[in-house]
Amino acid sequence: MTEFTIGSFNVKNLIGPDKEYYKFQTYTPEEYAWKEDWLADQLLTMDADIVGFQEIFEEEPLRAVIDEASRRAEILNAASVPDKSKRYHRKVIFRKLSVEPYAGAALAFAPNAADDGTPGKRRPGLAILSRLGFVGEPEIIQDLAQPLTIPFSPLRGLEGDAGQFTLRRLSRPILKVRVPVGEQIITVFNCHLKSKLGEYITPEGAEYAPEADLTHYDPIGRAMGSLRAAIRRMAEAWVLRALIVDELNAGHPVMVMGDFNDGEHAVSSEIIAGEAPFKNYQWMLRHDAQNAGDRYSEEEHRQITEDVEAVRLHSAEKMFVRKSARDMVYTSAFGGVFESIDQIYMSRHFHPDHDARLGEMTYFSALNDHLTDGSHPEAPYNKLASDHGQIVAHMRLHD
After folding, report:
1. Residue 299 resides in a domain
2. pTM
3. pLDDT attached to residue 371
4. Which of 224, 253, 271, 375 is the most exposed place for a label (fewest CB within 10 A)?
5. Which residues of 107-120 are buried (b: 16+ CB within 10 A; e: fewer)?
6. Parallel, antiparallel or unpaired: strands 313-315 and 125-130
7. Residue 99 lies in a domain
């Protein structure tokens, strides 16, 4: 059997020192050194073969973090793993203590197409690190060759144009790679969907959007900003879903990870995962029904169910919770709400209930001890550590 691990890591604004990424936000050399140290230690703890990173402004600081994690792995191994001269070096415990460095690992970086380097107006990209390398060239999807137009149909009783939404560029790129694992090649997507922060429009000639002025609080305008953000996030989820279905239809196993900026049951997450099949389509009125008794047949029920299941993705977290005594996993804590917005989804090639599965997940790790709810007046808050938990799925492939 072949074992591997895959993880997602939102690093929270990784950029070099003395560089203004958002307005008035920079790291001093000392702050940057602390952040690099913390990130390297966290990456060492994850010890994942495949890691998807989000909020990467520049590739060089990420490489520095990876190199530091590798250096620490070598030091740790030298101290805790006996060499072959020791008669006890074959003990299983030492395989668990060993950490594989990332020397020679492949790194794909996807810069943000909207990032022109202007201080204070930077835009983050993302990256994928793989000890197993890549097959072919990584693909970056952000500027859409064919804009996505979402038309709305008029409500019953109305006629005419009901409007439309057009998406030409994703807020952050989607990175697609193919990773060789054992005898399989797995398509891996890394994403960072539009956040829930309101999207406000600055009028021509103005310095800022009116809704940004909290001294003249505009609840309706800010609600519209949240609506814009939600529509954009769901549209980006659909773009990712189309890419996923293309891979599944081609027969490729798929794993998707990243910062969804939404929980498992949000519409955007459900778009990415795909529909859950209806329990029994024989109960359902046919699409072309002419009378009340026109239902789908048993054969059609089986065919529809298979068509739906073949392109579904499954949450690693949900599969883990289902078979464990653990009742809560969270990767974000804000405003008193603890939730999982960082996800690893996988096709049914890895689902335990699928007879033709290639493998399965054996464990799921969530590194979230560093998270605190900063909204509480007594809670500590460290702007240098990530404000996300890191997640790792432990996988086993069948030979």
Report:
1. no
2. 0.90
3. 59
4. 375
5. bbbbbbebbeeeee
6. unpaired
7. yes
| Domain that includes residue 262, residue range | 2-274+311-397
Q: What is the dihedral of CA 278, 251, 242, 193, to 10 degrees?
A: 90
Helix or strand (DSSP H, E) at 221: helix 219-249
Q: In what order do the strands lie in the sheet with 139-151?
A: 139-151, 164-181, 184-192, 254-259, 342-347, 313-315
Q: Between β-strands 332-334 and 359-367, what pairing exists: parallel, antiparallel or unpaired?
A: unpaired
Q: Are 148 and 164 in contact (CB under 8 A)?
A: no
* Dist. CA 334–CA 248, nearest whole Å: 35
Q: How many domains does the chain have?
A: 1
Res 76: pLDDT: 87
- Distance CA(44)–CA(260), nearest Å, equals 24
Give the Cα separation of 104 and 181 in Å (integer).
16
* Residue 304 falls inside a structural domain: no
Name the stretches of the chain with pLDDT < 70: 82-96, 322-328, 330-339, 341, 369, 371-383
pLDDT at 378: 47
Neighbours of 261 (CB within 10 A): 26
Q: Report residue 338 as tokens.
A: 């603890």
> What is residue 183's three-state secondary structure?
coil
Instruction: Look at residue 174 in the predicted model and tell me its pLDDT.
Output: 98
Q: Which residues pair with 390 in a beta bridge?
A: 367
Helix (H, G, I), strand (E, B) or coil at 225: helix
Diameter over CA atoms, the chain? 84
- What separation, in Å, do the N-terminal and C-terminal C-alpha atoms of the chain show? 5
Separation between Cα atoms, residue 299 and residue 313, nearest integer Å? 24
Q: Return the structure tokens found at 369.
A: 């001890």
